[in-house]
Design goal:
The protein is α+β, with helices and mostly antiparallel strands. The chain has a domain at 12-127: Roll (2,3-Dihydroxybiphenyl 1,2-Dioxygenase, domain 1), CATH 3.10.180.10. The protein has six helices and 16 strands. It has helices spanning 22-33, 84-93, 152-163, 182-189, 193-200, 236-245; strands at 12-19, 36-39, 50-54, 57-64, 74-80, 97-105, 109-115, 121-127, 142-149, 166-169, 175-178, 209-215, 226-232, 249-257, 260-266, 272-278. The strands form two sheets. An eight-stranded mixed beta sheet has the order 2-3-4-1-5-8-7-6. Strands 10-11-12-9-13-16-15-14 form an eight-stranded mixed beta sheet, covered by helices on one side. The protein is globular and about 55 Å long.
Length: 296
């Protein structure tokens, strides 16, 4: 895949993980994914921000937990917008809440953090010099972001109002968020993308997919709504073993799911992530009673 140089509004563009001990997280993820880190925070800024890179291309970051916030490790999803301030207004009008009002991040960009009406947190990114993840959809880089909620209908109304998202239904009734026009944007950098997707059996409209949406099971009423992150890997089984060796925890053991082999792990401080190996031969597993498993 060619390196990205920016996104269109409404597309997830960046992830970082907030950690009580950022240096320990840098050591873990550097060993797990082979990421090389740089602390890009200026001296005296009061907080370190470690950007992870593959072949000098930005893939993710590690930061300290925001001052005053609970000391909980988590992964954060950022969505590209033209204006963080306009996004804030849309979030409030649609029934969401501002967790951090829009603010400048040096010359890198302008951001804000919000919670949707069910409490799932996400960030927006108004880019300046930092154009989001440069490398995605290849081993050890971001592959997908997913929303898990109790009230799917309400989530559809909220995110359509804020970002213009729609949904498509894929195998076994699963749904995915789409951003009209995203496929055209991708096609410019990846000529023939639609034809290749069709040849693999991807559903119509998949080129516009920007994220997934899934209902939290009814028998888990106490699970809070959340956004998760998925990284592509060369070998899900090897990744799970390595995570455990490094002090992490395997929450969902590697297993075959539609289109992939996946695992869910928690890092030593508790932040969770999905890791998947793309397996085209698994595309029909859904019809044979298999299902994808994710964790908060």
């Amino acid at each position: 895949m060619p390196e990205r140089d920016g996104y269109i509004p409404g597309v997830p563009c960046w992830v970082d993980t907030s950690q009580p001990d950022p240096e320990a997280a840098v050591a873990f993820y550097g060993a797990l994914f082979g990421w090389e880190f740089e602390n890009v925070s200026p001296p005296g800024s009061g907080g370190d921000y470690f950007i992870a890179r593959i072949r000098a291309g930005d893939v993710a970051a590690v930061s300290p937990v925001t001052e005053g916030a609970p000391p909980v490790a988590m992964w954060n999803t950022y969505i590209w917008v033209q204006s963080a301030d306009e996004a804030a207004s849309k979030v409030i009008e649609a029934g969401g809440k501002a967790l951090m009002e829009p603010f400048d991040v040096g010359d890198a960009g302008r951001m804000a953090a919000f919670a949707d009406p069910e409490g799932a947190s996400f960030c927006v990114w108004q880019a300046r010099s930092h154009k989001g993840a440069r490398i995605v959809n290849e081993a050890d880089s971001l592959n997908f972001n997913g929303l898990h909620v109790h009230d799917v209908a309400a989530a559809k109304k909220f995110y359509h109002a804020v970002f213009g998202w729609r949904t498509i239904t894929v195998a076994d009734g699963a749904e995915m968020w789409t951003m009209p026009g995203y496929g055209d944007h991708l096609e410019r950098d990846n000529p023939g993308l639609r034809e290749r997707m069709a040849a693999m059996g991807a559903p119509s409209g998949f080129e516009d997919v920007v994220a997934t949406i899934a209902p939290i099971p009814e028998d888990e009423p106490n699970v809070a709504a959340y956004w998760d992150v998925t990284f592509a890997v060369d070998d899900a089984d090897e990744l799970a073993d390595k995570a455990a060796e490094l002090g992490g925890r395997v929450i969902v053991a590697p297993r075959d799911v539609p289109w992939a082999r996946m695992t869910v792990i928690a890092d030593p401080q508790g932040a969770t992530l999905n890791a998947t190996k793309f397996v085209p031969e698994n595309k029909d597993l859904a019809s044979r009673g298999q299902s994808t498993v994710t964790a908060a």
